[in-house]
Amino acid sequence: MKTTKLMVIAGLSVSLMGLSNLSSTTASAASVKTIQKVQTKAVLQKVSTHYNSKAKSLHISGLATQGNKVVVKYGTKKLATTNINAKHEFDTKVKFTGYKTISLYAVNKANKRVTPIVKLTANRYAAPTPTVEKSHRTSKAINYDLTTAKNKGTLVFYYQGKKFYSQKVKSTKTRISFTQDQLKGKKGNFTVRYFQTSKKASPAVKASIVKVGSVTQIFY
Description:
By secondary structure, this protein is α+β, with helices and mostly antiparallel strands. Helix content is 21%, strand content 42%. The chain is built from three helices and 15 strands. The termini are far apart. The model is unreliable at 1-20 and 25-29 (pLDDT under 50).
């Protein structure tokens, strides 16, 4: 009878060991699935832009967790296709006119998109558009009150396509004045653009050359 009891206990021990191994194997399998899920997530990340005003080109760089190449589009037009290196890095320089949205995505060897699309709006690669809040002309001068989204940059006035005046901004609100002598022979309007380091110049806005005694103002 003692021998029989020992055999039953031994069998139970073996069964418990088997269940323990099964539980461990199941847990390991679950862990592997979790790790694989994280590793297969395909994205473009750390995307940065730098505009070279002399070369009139935009440098775009970043990381791609998957893919062989990154496609760059400006609106619907393809600007470039650049390789992804062994460190998952990519970079390219593109030229374009205007302020449309730039789209980026990675593709595999079969040119099939494997990452979500990253969109770079003009706010990302260009300086913010200034606003001419008020134009006021007296018998002595014309005053322009302008606002800018950020206070680190330079406002540049152009007349008939030629640079007329520039001023660095010290706050989000700036007043610029021109004397009657400076305005001699000028009519119509100035165009104004805002410049910031590493950014494309903002779209141009008009600053009307109003008549003496006239005031134009934006009301919100």
